[in-house]
Every structure is written in C-alpha cells, then in structure tokens.
Amino acid sequence: MIKSFWGLFSHDIGIDLGTVNTLVSVRGKGIIIREPSVVAVHRKTRQVLAIGKEAKRMLGRTPHAIEAIRPLKDGVISDFDTTEAMLRHFIHMVHNTPGKFPKIPRPRVVIGIPSGVTEVERRAVQDAAISAGAREVYLIEEPMADAIGANLNIQDPEGNIVVDIGGGTTEIAIISMGGMVVNRSLRIAGDEMDEAITNYMRTRYGLIIGERTAEDIKLELGSAVIDGREKETVVRGRELASGLPKSIRISSAEIREALAPVINEIITNIQEVLEETPPELLSDILERGIFLTGGGALIKGLDKRLSEETKLPVWIADDPLTTVVRGCTKLLDDLDLLSKVKVTGGLK
What we know:
Elements: H1 2-9, E1 13-17, E2 21-26, E3 30-36, E4 39-42, E5 48-51, H2 53-56, E6 66-69, E7 72-73, E8 76-77, H3 80-95, E9 108-113, H4 119-131, E10 136-141, H5 142-149, E11 160-165, E12 170-176, E13 179-186, H6 190-205, E14 207-208, H7 211-221, E15 232-239, E16 245-251, H8 252-276, H9 279-288, E17 290-293, H10 302-310, E18 314-316, H11 323-331, H12 335-341, E19 344-347
Parallel strand pairs: 1-9, 9-10, 11-17, 17-18
Antiparallel strand pairs: 1-2, 2-3, 4-5, 4-6, 7-8, 10-19, 11-12, 12-13, 14-15, 15-16
Helix pairs in contact: 3-4, 5-11, 6-7, 6-8, 7-8, 8-10
C-alpha cells in the first residue's frame, strides 16, 4: 500500500544505460533524455565538470588537468564513481522538478543490461543506480527489453529472434514464452567498428584520427553492401610520419572494406545462434524473420546483407535506437511481466 502511494508521485523511469549513449524515459511522458555516456572530470580532484553532450564535445580536446571519460566499456561499468555521477545527474534532471510537494519520492527504475554480464557487473549497475537516488532497481536483459519495446508477443509459444547491435555489445537472442531459449552476447559492436576505421586510416594512409572522427565517418560513409550511391568525404587528422596535420579524401567503398571484418563476425555469430535453435522455433523464425535494433541497424544495407547471408527476412525496428528504453518503460506498467523477465531487482 505504501509502495503504491509513493508510486503516485514518483517519476518512475526506464534507462538504457548504453556504452555510447544513455536514454531515459519517464513513465507516462516518454523519452526525455538522450545523452552521450560521457563524463568530464578534473584529474586531480575528480570533480565532475560536465556530463552528456557537453562532456562529449571535450573528447580529444581537453587540457591535461581535465579527463573526458566514457564510464561504460562493452556494455558494463568500467568506472563506478563516474557512472554513479552520470546516473544521479539524469535522475535529478527528470525527478527533482518543481511541484507542490517539497520531497518527491525517489523513483523506481528499470535498466536494460547486456545478457552476458556477470553477477558482479549486475551488482555494480544496481548499486550505482541505488547510490544515484533510485528507490528500487530492476535489471532486464537487453534482448528482452528490445522485444517488449518492439511490441513482440514474447509470452506466446512462438519463436522470435532479436539482434541488437549497440555501441558496446551485440545481443542475439531467440525468445519464446517469456524467456530466452538461445542467446549470445558479443563484445563486438559499434565501438569495434570505430576502432576498425581508426586502424584502417592508420595502416592505409598513415593518418591518426580520434574516436569522434571515426564515429562521424562510420555514420556518414558506413555501409554493408554496394548500393550504387558511393560517397566521399574529407578526413582530417595527424600524419603518422611527420606529426603534422593532413587531409585526405576517402570513399564509402574503403569504409565498407574497413568494417567488413566486424560485420562478418556479427553475421557468423547470428548464423551460429540459428544453428543452435530448436527446429520448432526455426519454423516460426522463417516466417517472422529477424528483428534488428540498436544503432548498428542504421548501417546502410546491413539488413539486406544479413538477409542474404541467413536467407531470412530482416526487419529494422521502428526507431531502433530506443527499443530498449521503451521496453524498460513498458514494464513499469506491467509489474507481472516485470516479475517474470527481470534478472534481479527490488533491492533498496
């Protein structure tokens, strides 16, 4: 009774705590925060100077006294204190709003996490959210949150396959009857694509570029198949031999070559998951196809390439960047389903 009373005034939230971006959705209001998962701190005092977009602008540009940190690596917390500071900042943004009540109750929070994290890594996420001001924290694996956010009937005895290519991890899962029958969590995703572009520029042209530049190149030129609309762009960086600034022109064909090993490995793992899937569920998947989500779903032609390699139809989810956070928020309205699909939760 007390819990339900507090829930009337608490802004319960769903969080997609991503390696690259963090999205926050408030129950009944929708997604209100889309911020980079970056925190700028003073190296000596560890004082937090900026969070989100403001901190991301500092990447690669800070003086020695300031450090811009991405506190999550491969989908898990690598820096607890900065993750806690980031979560506290976002919770404060959505929860401490002016109103009639001087003390609004702390929120109940549902957070999407990679399916392959360890118990220690789960505990780190939960502890960080509690320390940041959450009343209760529930963790749900990202493929399940994706399926719920994409409005798939996860409780039916039919099979669905969800592939979420995020910034830090690629999640592949066969879902049926409210659980994951087969799943695989790869620490190969958007960050590895950026790294592949950085390495390509270094080895092919002797040009050193930063991670922001690599990400921009991926978004502008990245593709998985030849689509007849090859593009070019100018890339600026530092010449490896001389250390001086240098500009070169590169094409989408070159970036496709750079991304090929990462994309090939993701596709190989999807094929292996399909090989492990029970035949009864494969017949459903043949009919329904693959649901593709995450930022990687926006790589041009990836859906076509995946369909060619697996012989299955591939559907890109509506607004693939937000399926996890939408699924987390939907669970706040369906506590029975939350109790079935949560990994852990409810600690105070």
